[in-house]
Amino acid sequence: MSANGVVRAGALLLAAAGLLDGRRCTTHHSLIAALQAAAPAAKVEENRVFVEDGPVLTSAGITTGIDLALHLIERHAGAELAGRVARRQVVYQRRGGNDPQISPWLAHRNHLHPAVHRAQDAIAQDPARSWSLEELAGCAHVSARHLTRLFAEHAGISVVGYQQRLRVARARELLVDRQLSVEHVAELAGFASARDFRRVWQRYEGGAPSALRTTGKERLFATGN
């Protein structure tokens, strides 16, 4: 059976051809409204890396097309080959169709304030570290009080909230290793305890961390052969 696979704005071409009617699909987050208007009979899904509905495959952007291609390689040739292709293409973290389009490592960075970026860079380089507000303020070259205000104004999130989001993102990467217990993942990601980890995970991801392993959403290929 033939299939139609597109990336980013390619979904609009499928819409114009009437190939999306009654089907689930996605596109880049900036084109969602345009796709909904072009294909009113389609089920347009937001914030998805890629969507597969029968012979129609749509992905959010250029790089998400790589995720879609790896998904198809795994289906037709097996996970081992898909892993080798991913490593050959230097794609060590592979996303599934249900993963968000915007990486948590890039979220809250769409601003131009250098002090906030300096603090965010410090957290991103070592999210597991127990950063104090004073230490981050030192990295940003502002007072702790001023950094708190700047974060809320420019990043749209608190300093603590930003660090928690990156710790959850790091934990998500670690959970792919089924040899690591949830307790060990919590420790490596910088959480004070497994209980604290579960509480923060529930806030940002919903459910329990262990559920990620049962849904098959974790997609991380090791760098070894």
UniProtKB/TrEMBL annotation:
Mention one GO molecular function.
sequence-specific DNA binding
Is the Cell division keyword given for this protein? no
Taxonomic placement = Bacteria, Pseudomonadati, Pseudomonadota, Betaproteobacteria, Candidatus Accumulibacter
Q: What is this protein called?
A: Transcriptional regulator, AraC family
**Entry keywords, A to Z:** Transcription, Transcription regulation
Domain HTH araC/xylS-type residues, every copy: 117-215
A single Pfam family it belongs to is HTH_18
Protein's UniProt keywords contain Ribonucleoprotein: no
| Highest rank taxon of the organism | Bacteria
